[in-house]
Amino acid sequence: MGLTFGSDCGCAEGTPKKTAASKIFETAKDLFYRRGIRAVGVDEIVCEAGVTKPSLYRAYRSKDELVAACLREDVEAGRASIYAALDAAGPDPRDRLDAVIRHKAEKMRRADFRGCLISNVAVELPEPGHPGRLIVESCKSDFRALFCDLSRDLGVAEPEKLADGLILVIEGAMATHHVFGSQGPAQALEDTCAALIDFHLEHARAKA
């Protein structure tokens, strides 16, 4: 469904006019992130988006399909931002690992941070085979694989153990953010990860 153009909506001439599908998508993603998948129904989405229910079902066959579309977009955007941070970090393995951790810490300091959408949805959608659940599992598996690769590049003796430890710290920081905000335990994210990396590096040097 392409964008339509015009000025009869009060927009400046040449400004893209949002389609019903794009309004639905943007509204749903915002509501899902702020309030959760289960708490938001189709009626609320179309009301907030200012469109009709048939418009939603023309764009998405079901709420589950809309959820999956929102998750796919979030995963793609998150992956792009992580790889941008890696590209900016340069070739040094420690700098690259630090860059991803710093990227996560900076996201948690944003005023609009409401946790990781993918992690939040993992709790809400436990059913195996749900289209949203499949995206969640694939995303988290890819994230773990990235940390394993970065840890191997670092030359530590147990890269998978380091990767899992770092993920536990990051996921734990995001979970506690729901209660304490950015001024709670999440503040310790970067220092805790740095200490864990240093421990594995010292262990590798001692075994060399």
Automatic annotation (TrEMBL):
The keyword DNA-binding applies. It comes from the Bacteria. Keywords: DNA-binding, Transcription, Transcription regulation. Signal peptide: none annotated. Residues 18-78 form the HTH tetR-type domain. InterPro entries: Homeodomain-like_sf, HTH_TetR, Tet_transcr_reg_TetR-rel_C_sf. Residues 41-60 bind DNA. PANTHER family: HTH-TYPE TRANSCRIPTIONAL REGULATOR YJDC, TRANSCRIPTIONAL REGULATORY PROTEIN. This is TetR/AcrR family transcriptional regulator.
